[in-house]
Amino acid sequence: MQTITSIQIRSPINANIITLYTAASITTFLKPTSSDHLPTPPPFSAHFITTSPPLPGRASRACLVEGPPVSRSRIPQPPPMATLKVPATVPAVADDCDQLRKAFQGWGTNEALIISILGHRDAAQRRAIRRAYADTYGEELLRSITDEISGDFERAVILWTLDPAERDAVLANEAARKWQPGNRVLVEIACTRGSAQLFAARQAYHERFKRSLEEDIAAHVTGDFRKLLVPLVTAYRYDGPEVNTRLAHSEAKILHEKIHHKAYSDDEIIRILTTRSKAQLLATFNYYNDTFGHPINKDLKADPKDEYLKTLRAIIRCFTCPERYFEKVVRQAIAGLGTDENSLTRVITTRAEVDLKLIKEAYQKRNSVPLERAVAGDTSGDYESMLLALLGQE
Q: What is d(CA 320, CA 316) in angstroms, rounded to the nearest whole number?
């Protein structure tokens, strides 16, 4: 078996050179109390995809790195590709709780104060605020939020305040219960999270809904989609950089043969897409492009209106170029006469601590308009202010 520990390959979507790295982050998670019912996800190892080597002493494009909350002291800033703006000096958790309580009380709700606090705290800090708020006031913070605000603003604040794994569980539950062929939320969660992050989301799903994600998908999704999505969300992929080049070459041929014969739901296609590591898949797609002269996604456009083929293409795009996938989701959410607030909120709240800067760059390049301006033009009020805060607007 031929393996390598670090590779540079050409993206199957464009001509960029992609460098693959891995790095582990030891995550400190606070133990939940009975009052706030927060799940305790395990530490995770993030898989990084960058378009250039990392600077010395600096991590490459990183997924969320969390640590214990630090009161009134300098704290590590979010990853370089995140848009979240956390103050260099953060107030004590008790002070944040006190200010939030004041925002909820009185004759009117102080929405700007809610945004100024929750819109500028990372996941670990928000988790600490939820716990301290419940301990101090005997009420879950999320309950106070839903009692005081509503609509798209409420949904944005709630999703953002949730722990990342818990948020994924909520989004996955909505997608499974209201599933329709054009819904790609389950694909997003399964293919743009690291293995341990996906596992943590499934654990949070157990905790919150008292059943498994896969049984809900099996209950609400049918046919080829069920055959594909159940193993996709239950995968625990290897996150390392090693690539078996011989295997990549042979599986590229398998994929081409099945696609050529229009056997799109063949067990071999599903096996490869739902079990191989991201690094291995990128190598396989690259061999496909080199051997057959065009990207795999081009061969999956035989019927542009076929939702199953669109799902296969979405899976591949999430692995190869997630920022371009999310840019398209945002563009379609904003385009047209109406706004798809759920999709817009989902992308911004799930990527603000990960790679929203890259998504903003892709949006600017594709549309010649800053994403902040597009969001401001299609939203209003406190909802607009919350999204712009997460987009990094001062």
A: 6
Q: Is 336 annotated as a binding residue?
A: no
In sign, the C-alpha dihedral spanning 312, 314, 316, 318 is: negative
**Mean pLDDT score, 355-379:** 97
- Distances, alpha carbon 63 to alpha carbons 25, 59, 194, 394, in Å: 9, 10, 8, 22
User: Binding residue per annotation — 378?
Assistant: yes
- CA dist 236 and 26 (Å) reads 19
* Ligand-binding site membership of 327 (annotated): no
Question: Has 340 been labeled as part of a binding site?
Answer: no
| Contacts of residue 211, Cβ cutoff 8 Å, sequence gap at least 6 | 205
Q: How many CA atoms lie within 13 Å of 200's alpha carbon, on the beta-carbon side? A: 22
Over its C-alpha atoms, the chain yields an Rg (Å, rounded) of 21
pLDDT tens digit string along 295-305? 999 999 988 89
Bridge partners, residue 10, by sequence: 17
For 220-236, what is each residue's pLDDT tens digit?
Answer: 999 999 999 999 999 99
**Annotated binding-site residue? 104:** yes
Please report the domains of the chain, with CATH numbers, ordered by start residue: 93-149 (1.10.220.10), 164-234 (1.10.220.10), 245-320 (1.10.220.10), 324-391 (1.10.220.10)
Estimate to the nearest angstrom the gap between the alpha carbon of 161 and the chain centroid. 15
Query: How is residue 316 written in tokens?
Result: 């591949």
The amino acid at 348? I
- Known binding residue 293? Answer is no
pLDDT digits (tens, 9 = 90+) for 179-226: 999 999 999 999 999 999 999 999 999 999 999 999 999 999 999 999
* 251 is an annotated ligand-binding site residue: no
User: How many angstroms separate the Cα of 378 from the Cα of each of 121, 151, 292, 371?
Assistant: 25, 15, 42, 11
Consult the annotation and say whether 240 binds a ligand: no
Which tokens sit at 301? 């456009």
Give the per-residue pLDDT at 337: 82
Q: Is 108 annotated as a binding residue?
A: yes
pTM of the predicted model, to two decimals?
0.81
> Beta partners for 199?
none
Q: Tokens 């049918």 belong to which residue?
A: 222
| 338 known member of a binding site | yes
